[in-house]
Amino acid sequence: MNKAHNIYIHVPFCVQKCKYCAFFSRACGTPNWDEYANSIIGEVEHFSRILGRIQVPTIFFGGGTPSLMPVWVFTKIIDSIRKNFEVNTNAEITIESNPGTIDENKLGEFCAAGVNRLSIGVQSFDDDKLKFLGRIHNANDARTLIDAAIKRGIRVSADFIYGLPGDTTKDVIDICNEINKIGLTHCSLYELTIEPDTAFGKMELAMPDNDTMAEMYIAIENNLNIPRYEVSNYAAAGYECRHNQNVWDGEPYIGIGIGAAGRVFMDNVWYEELGGGKMFQPMSDDARAIERVITGMRTMRGVRMDSATKKILNLEFAKSHTDMVMFSGDRLHATKSGILVLDDLIEKLVK
Ligand code: SF4
């Protein structure tokens, strides 16, 4: 029997393209949902044929804008996953959402169909900044959706972007204070990065300098009530995103849908996989171990040291740089100073 796999389903549609977005998604007013659902189900059935009736601990609908999906599409896909795999009774089932594409009623229907975690793309509580980013909603829409989700008793996360042109550390502290006031148990705060193939990539933007960005990053940790558990993610104990934690920790996951990627473990071999049947090829144990170091070191609990990771880790370097990395039980993790130079650190840690 093959191991348990987490499942990621990509929903590639958005109302309009945000100006900073380099994700695989397209603005599409009226997607062909029947065609979409059938192609996702075709992939689910394919993986069930090759992996067997494996356990599924988490299912994550990411985008794009999954909350654009009519609930019947979600239900059809979930039914097919349940029919083909053994979904754990306490499985975490997340959908990403954008304010303006889902109201209280639709949220209730998603929850009745199985959703137990909502990730909301808030990005900012400032209407001018939302307009600047090309978002379709205002701050009030976001607050209303957060309130509705919290009231429903499901787990709620909100995404924010900081480091916009003109942003100050005080702006970041204001976001943290509002997150604390709302009492969010999970949030992600991402630094705005300018990607070439985006609307922002074609503009001359005066971004905050590196020192200011570093100050903002430190201010987040000092002002949020919930601790950092990954470079850009914060959660109260027990409220971490289980799907992402499993993926970062090197557990297998199936990526389904045209913009998805997965790492499948079948008959003791790792496979690199792209959704939509675009790629499925074996990868070496060393290549997989390097990926585990990269994602694991981004988490505060660190990467698990077993025979695969020990083989590619430079443990001598780790032992002689205790200011940047620490051993804790069977894990190796970055210290607060190590996190600030993580890319360099990882490069030196891998033999
Ligand atoms: S809603 Fe998300 S995926 Fe869609 S364009 Fe905006 S940032 Fe990209």
Task: Describe, in plain words, how this protein is organized in 3D.
It is a single chain. The protein is α/β, with parallel strands linked by helices and 351 residues long. Strands 9-10-8-7-6-5-4-1-11 form a 9-stranded mixed sheet, sandwiched between helices. It has a 3-stranded antiparallel sheet with strand order 12-13-14. The longest helix has 19 residues, at 33-51. A hairpin with a 4-residue loop joins strand 13 and strand 14 (279-283). The protein is globular. It has helices at 33-51, 71-84, 104-112, 127-133, 139-152, 169-182, 210-223, 242-248, 285-297, 307-312, 315-320, 336-340, 342-349, and strands spanning 6-11, 13-14, 26-27, 55-63, 86-97, 117-123, 155-162, 186-191, 228-230, 233-235, 253-256, 261-266, 269-274, 279-283, 303-304, 325-328, 331-334. Bound molecules: iron/sulfur cluster.
Order of helices and strands: EEEHEHEHEHHEHEHEEHEEEEHEHHEEHH
CATH topology of the largest domain: TIM Barrel
**End-to-end gap:** 33 Å
Bound ligands: iron/sulfur cluster
Q: What is the residue-averaged pLDDT? A: 97
Under CATH at level 1, the class of the largest domain stands as: Alpha Beta
Number of strands: 17
Radius of gyration: 20 Å
